[in-house]
TrEMBL record:
Cited PANTHER family: GLR1098 PROTEIN, RESTRICTION ENDONUCLEASE DOMAIN-CONTAINING PROTEIN-RELATED
Organism for this UniProt entry: Sorangium cellulosum
Name of the protein in its database record: Putative restriction endonuclease domain-containing protein
Gene3D superfamilies: tt1808, chain A (3.90.1570.10)
Residue span, Putative restriction endonuclease domain: 13-177
Name of a matching Pfam family: Uma2
InterPro entries reported for this sequence: Nuclease_put_TT1808, Restrct_endonuc-II-like, Uma2
Length: 197
């Protein structure tokens, strides 16, 4: 389907066909397909660090931590994307059109980047808020030890809590606290002088 401005709009089935054949990840938004930017080494380290901390906290509980390999679909808006880290508790609900897409994350985490920060804070968060199961949206700064937790209240409003170095980011929805220092600890930075010598 083409728009009057010449842009081609894709159905979800067309998007899936292209996504399965592509070596890179893409996001579907309002019928348009967008390539997702590759991350930096620091971005990748922070994603894994957050995921590992969550997994350790959730061990023995009926919750799973997913990497950015898991596609999440927002049925209310049509957004299909790959959050940096996601948590699903109970049972993974799969999209009827796409068995590889989750519908029911309870926590979504994005490690910010200069190129995506405005989108992650604005339009993407607006889409994520339409996921009925979502209770917390977490933003991890790439420039300083700072984790922001947006928590959905009983009345549907959202409250921001921020944690910095020496503090813990509380994730009430899953009953755990992320140590900001542990998330940002870079073992390679600490080992660098020894490796060079």
């Amino acid at each position: 389907m083409d728009q009057p401005d010449g842009k081609r709009l894709y159905s979800y089935a067309e998007y899936l066909e292209q996504e399965r054949a592509s070596p890179t990840k893409h996001e579907l938004l309002n019928g348009e397909i967008f390539a997702m930017a590759a991350g930096t080494p620091d971005h990748a380290r922070l994603c894994v660090s957050v995921g590992a901390e969550l997994r350790a906290h959730l061990r023995g509980r009926p919750c799973a931590v997913y990497s950015s390999a898991l596609r999440v679909r927002v049925q209310a808006t049509g957004l299909s994307t790959y959050p940096d880290v996601g948590v699903v508790c109970g049972r993974l609900e799969r999209d009827p059109e796409d068995a590889d897409a989750a519908l029911n994350p309870i926590v979504l985490i994005e490690v910010l980047s200069d190129s995506s920060e405005a989108y992650d804070r604005g339009q993407k968060f607006a889409h994520y808020r339409r996921i009925p199961s979502l209770r917390e949206y977490v933003l991890v700064s790439p420039h300083e030890p700072r984790i922001e937790v947006f928590h959905r209240n009983e009345d549907g409003s959202w409250t921001l809590r921020e944690a910095r170095a020496g503090e813990g980011a509380q994730l009430q929805a899953i009953g755990c606290t992320l140590s900001v220092d542990d998330v940002y600890r870079d073992p390679l930075a600490q080992a660098a002088p020894e490796a060079e010598g």
